[in-house]
């Protein structure tokens, strides 16, 4: 299992705009559609990655806990489905249903959105404030498959609580760690 860290997009970056299809509804969704009044969480995930599977239940709990407080959530899969068919839009629908995602799970076929966000791994988390400026990026928490640390979403929850309670964000933000984005042969940004 490859372990790829986040690239850590600079804080203050304006959220890149996107319009992507939602395989579950067959409708296109934009950043504006998912933006929350207080802030917006953009997550890069996929169906097959063990790091994502490890945290999916907690991601759903966090979205359910914070959506009612004015935060928007969206998940995006950018993997090359030709070489990783388990991440296909058809199976994205199944994953969204299996975990009861309360947020759109969008398909980034061209991988442009992943490039725009400088996404490197799955899962990769970004929290933008009400003006869609980046205030947190990095890990959900310290748990990884097999390390014995319980999944609790501590880092992302703390960042969301800081926004909700008008507190400064912690300057120490740990990169996420997971499977590298599966880039198409002609799309690898490196």
Automatic annotation (TrEMBL):
InterPro entries (alphabetical): AhpC/TSA, PRX-like1, Thioredoxin-like_sf, Thioredoxin_domain
Domain Thioredoxin: 9-165
Coiled coil, from the record: none
GO MF, one example: oxidoreductase activity
Taxonomic superkingdom: Bacteria
PANTHER family for this protein: OS07G0260300 PROTEIN, THIOREDOXIN-DEPENDENT PEROXIREDOXIN
Protein name: Peroxiredoxin
Taxonomy of the source species: Bacteria, Pseudomonadati, Bacteroidota, Flavobacteriia, Flavobacteriales
